[in-house]
Amino acid sequence: MLDKVDALIVGSGASGAAVAWSLADTRMRIVCLEQGDWVKPTDYPSNGRDWEARLFSDFAINPNRRARPTDYPINDANSPIKVVNFNGVGG
Ligand SMILES: Cc1cc2nc3c(=O)[nH]c(=O)nc-3n(C[C@H](O)[C@H](O)[C@H](O)COP(=O)(O)OP(=O)(O)OC[C@H]3O[C@@H](n4cnc5c(N)ncnc54)[C@H](O)[C@@H]3O)c2cc1C
User: Fold this and answer.
1) Fewest CB within a 10 Å sphere: which of 38, 56, 81, 84?
2) Are 48 and 80 members of one domain?
3) Same structural domain for residues 50 and 79?
4) Is the CB–ligand 1 distance for residue 13 below 6 Å?
């Protein structure tokens, strides 16, 4: 780990990863933090016959239902917008 960095990017989602990539050719010291895991394409639910069930468990779009160790609870009870996200490299 570097002691000092020029750019700290929190989250390697669509935006963070693109910024990290765009800065990769500079001489800047860059750290990109991601709270989620790497997800291998072979782990995608579409590769198994239980894919429909997994959309209601470990691959649910709602983090409260998904409840992975990398998720955090979101209270959207008073919001007209229902949260849909995934915490992982690539967003
Ligand atoms: C089911 C679904 C399907 C979609 N399909 C498409 C599509 O086909 N085409 C399209 O263009 N767009 C699609 N989108 C939209 C697209 O995914 C989002 O617009 C885009 O990911 C937003 O980018 P972002 O960088 O703002 O956020 P995100 O991609 O969500 O990235 C945020 C990242 O930050 C991380 N993070 C959060 N908190 C912390 C923390 N405290 N510390 C470290 N890391 C943290 C998260 O884990 C995540 O990786 C889809 C979205 C969903 C939910």
Assistant:
1) 81
2) yes
3) yes
4) yes
